[in-house]
Amino acid sequence: MADLRYGVVGLGSMGRHHVRNIRSLDGAELIAVADPFGDKFGVAGDTPLFTDVAQVIDAGVDAVVVAVPTSEHHAVAKQLIENGIHVLVEKPLAATIEEARELTGLVEEHGVVGAVGYVERCNPAIRAMREKIEEGLLGQIHQIATVRQSPFPARIKDVGVVKDLATHDLDLTAWVAKSEYQSISATTNNASGRDYEDFVSINGILANGVIVNHLVNWMSPYKERKTVVTGENGALVAETVLGDLTYYKNGIDEIEWDQISNFRGVSEGEVIRYAISKPEPLSVEHRAFRDAVVNGKPGIVTFAEGLRTMRVVEAALESANSNQTVLLEA
């Protein structure tokens, strides 16, 4: 089979990395890139550089990565899908539920592959964590907590921290736990003076009874990405910046010092940092997308899944605005 003919629309902070990964992807040929503001990172090279998606379509592409601002996801992806082109859209799927719902229907109608770029699912620590949980390492899961904070990204102008960053945690938590959100409660704060929130604290309950907590902001002077899953046998901690996974096992030795025993609740046991393979997450995402296009192999985050996450995102924002817990439909 001939190489898939790829295009990339949007050559910003994410688009440039998509270009790099497509060029090193087996079975792929990058034949067109586009950005109305030009190639500010100088990644186009010998690849034809256009200004809009229509020109990319005319170049004869089979698949396109959409890495434009969130507010433009719907218009760009819709045009591609209606021309029978497979699409990988950066997260979140769209700016609104209505737009996400339309795109989800369009990929089904036109029979193309639609994937959403929730690249954290491809992080080696998160993937290994899910495998360990499936193996029963933790026993019954009680709680999932995430922290995602970093300096302010001046490039993000059309959404707040919930749609840009917290959406990762809402997606990966449901994926790791294999359960959807049942209810959600959120509080936001605006410190930068922009139109959108900069901080969010989210509490929720999954349909399987697991309680979840998410602390997210882009006003911290340092970068932190951590997911902690606590179960009856101990806790798994994924540090996704470096792709590390550590298991903190509940101890089995009796603690004779009553004061410490009463304070700890469970005793400290062995600590294991797993040696895991660490491919670049974006490379893993692109291989999954290619395989889905070529032979229908599962592994992508589908538009239907992206739509479900959008519903949770909107519920979090609704909760923050109303100061009430929001129940999600089953």
UniProtKB/TrEMBL annotation:
Residues in GFO/IDH/MocA-like oxidoreductase domain copies: 126-236
InterPro entries: Gfo/Idh/MocA-like_OxRdtase_N (IPR000683), Gfo/Idh/MocA_Oxidoreductases (IPR051450), GFO_IDH_MocA-like_dom (IPR055170), NAD(P)-bd_dom_sf (IPR036291)
Domain of life: Bacteria
Annotated ranges, domain Gfo/Idh/MocA-like oxidoreductase N-terminal: 4-118
Gene3D superfamilies, per database record: Dihydrodipicolinate Reductase, domain 2 (3.30.360.10), NAD(P)-binding Rossmann-like Domain (3.40.50.720)
Name this polypeptide is given: Gfo/Idh/MocA family oxidoreductase
Source species of the chain: Corynebacterium coyleae
Higher taxonomy: Bacteria, Bacillati, Actinomycetota, Actinomycetes, Mycobacteriales
